[in-house]
Amino acid sequence: MTTDMADDQRKEPGVVIDDGWPGYNLELFNYPEHYHGDLECVYVPHGVIMNRIECLARDILEDLEHQDMILLCVLKGGYKFCSDLVESIKAQSRSANRILTTRVEFIRLKSYLNDQSTEDLHIIGPEDLSMLKGKNVLIVEAIVDTGKTMRALQQHVESFQPKLVKVAGLLVKRLPHGMVTLPDYVGFVIPNRFVVGYALDYNEYFRDLNHICVISETGKLKYKV
Ligand code: HPA
Ligand code: MG
Which H or E element spans position 94? Predict the structure, then answer.
């Protein structure tokens, strides 16, 4: 019984945030003064993000039978998620007395200008991911929307012949046409809104905001290029 229930619970794709979710009033939270007026609401508070990451780390450890893993951090947006995820994985494996080595590698992608996808995906280094050969690889992405980037990246990684490839996405956007494949580990499924903070940017701004927030029209205009 207990195991069936656990299996059912694992089928949830992540914490689902409904289309009608208005977010929290900004006045109830602490955030940098230089962004006053540039945000509409706090969508996912930092503490909630951190707790959810602990659960993803637990799930990853449960699935991982092997003793080493390489986390492939998708920059720049994934740096905070990757860093907090790896710390949580290490802490939980230590307290379970498990031997696990973690190594972090980085890959850089760029595809957004203002709040629009530019369609073409650029993988900007490193050229050589041969260290992935024969390894357990976890691709760590802050946000997955169309899934196109995720699939392109998976293929790119597969070409280096790793032993296993899994994907962790902190946020997955619910798009009108839906996504065929979800990441293996999903933090939150969110409505199709442009969000910033926790390393997610709008033209390089807002990465220094800890909460995930919705940008205001004023903010979009102020930082438009
Ligand atoms: N925010 C920031 N970067 C993004 C988003 C978003 O909502 N979607 C894709 N890249
Ligand atoms: Mg960006």
Answer: helix 79-95
Determine how many CB atoms are found less than 10 A away from the CB of residue 94: 11
Residue range 177-193, pLDDT digits in tens: 766 689 999 999 999 99
pLDDT of the residue at 5: 47
Q: For residue 177, what pLDDT is reported?
A: 74
Q: How far apart are CA 133 and CA 165, in angstroms?
A: 11
pLDDT (average), residues 15-23? 96
**Could you tell me the two tokens for 165?**
């490839």
β-bridge mates for residue 72, sequence order: 105, 139
**Is the sign of the CA dihedral 120, 124, 125, 127 positive or negative?**
positive
Quickly count helices (H) and strands (E) in the chain: 5, 10
pTM over 0.70: yes
User: Ligand 1, from 145, 190, 192, 211: best to mutate by most atoms within 8 Å of Cβ?
Assistant: 145
State whether the beta carbon of 200 lies less than 6 angstroms from ligand 1. yes
**Distance of alpha carbon 74 from alpha carbon 200, whole angstroms:** 11
How far away, in angstroms, is 76 Cα from ligand 1 center? 11
Residues with Cβ within 8 Å of residue 138, at least 6 apart in sequence = 60, 69, 70, 71, 72, 165, 166, 167, 168
Averaged over 4-24, what is the pLDDT? Answer: 77
